[in-house]
UniProtKB/TrEMBL annotation:
SUPFAM superfamilies: Multiheme cytochromes. NCBIfam families: TAT_signal_seq. It comes from the Bacteria. This is Tat pathway signal protein. InterPro entries: CGCAxxGCC_motif (IPR010181), Multihaem_cyt_sf (IPR036280), TAT_signal (IPR006311), TAT_signal_bac_arc (IPR019546). Coiled coil: none annotated. Pfam families: C_GCAxxG_C_C.
């Protein structure tokens, strides 16, 4: 009889412990859901937020540090995106609390390792478009890309002992292109270092910091009505006189520097180039 009582007592205690555990988990989930729901405006628990999302002035220096740290977590695209969206999440809350910044991880290394558009620009441009309509975003993104092409990277340097992969100064270079593979290759030529070196990875982390800070500067200017597009590439303008929309050849699009890839064209002897384009040579 005593053994039966002990068995019953054990079953009771075991059931009580399991029930208490289930209650604790359920309560935790409930509080999490309540906290998330508190971020939603009343009556909009199921409706998507209106677009574009709200904006407040951000800190470029914080964006620089966050972009650098973000590169360490999930490379350049995520780093630049999180540097902007993270601040907006802290300052505004909803709807930025529902933006999963990890989705920009794919943009690292120019998009899945393809070396196309610099990942920092992918993340930055996406963040820009969250805060304004496409018609405005196109202008701000274009200005950011133009700045990137002409800026001597990297400018940012972490405090001593806090570098991600490489301490000290790093050789600067001007990419003259928004493309990852061009930006990296130009830097490798300037520095004499390898594309897979720790120094190159550190360089890209610092580029991410610079891009994040510049993005916040442009966003602050735009949302305070002080933005003015200043980037201009006269080489591209000259080429588009024939190759651009509505002109005689109309066989290309874009705003990247033409001479960097079209090395067969002598800018001082465009007559021969024109003749060749028209099969007159």
């Amino acid at each position: 009889m005593s053994e039966e009582k002990d068995m019953s007592r054990r079953k009771f205690l075991k059931s009580g412990i399991l029930a208490a555990g289930a209650l604790a988990v359920g309560t935790s989930i409930f509080h999490t859901q309540v906290a998330e729901a508190a971020q939603l405006p009343e009556g909009e628990h199921c409706a998507p937020p209106s677009f574009p999302y709200p904006y407040v002035q951000l800190d470029p220096e914080k964006a620089k540090l966050d972009g650098y740290a973000g590169y360490g977590k999930s490379k350049c695209s995520y780093g630049a995106f999180e540097a902007v969206i993270g601040q907006l999440r802290e300052k505004i809350g909803y709807p930025y609390t529902h933006v999963p910044t990890q989705v920009l991880g794919w943009g690292g290394t120019g998009g899945g390792g393809w070396g196309t558009l610099c990942g920092a620009l992918i993340g930055a441009a996406t963040a820009i478009n969250y805060t304004m309509p496409k018609s405005d975003a196109d202008k701000v993104v274009s200005e950011l890309f133009g700045w990137y092409c002409d800026h001597p990277f990297p400018e940012f340097m972490p405090e001593a002992g806090k570098a991600l992969e490489y301490e000290g100064p790093i050789e600067k270079s001007v990419a003259k292109s928004p493309l990852c593979h061009v930006s990296v290759s130009v830097w490798c030529d300037a520095s004499g270092l390898k594309a897979e070196s720790k120094a190159r990875s550190e360089r890209c982390a610092r580029v991410t910091a610079d891009v994040a800070a510049k993005t916040v500067e442009l966003l602050n200017q735009f949302h305070s009505k002080n933005f003015k597009a200043v980037y201009k590439n006269e080489v591209v303008d000259d080429c588009m006189i024939c190759h651009g929309k509505g002109h005689s050849l109309e066989n290309t699009r874009g705003m990247m520097d033409c001479e960097q890839c079209h090395t067969d064209v002598d800018p001082n002897n465009l007559v021969d180039h024109i003749k060749k384009s028209w099969d007159l040579l």
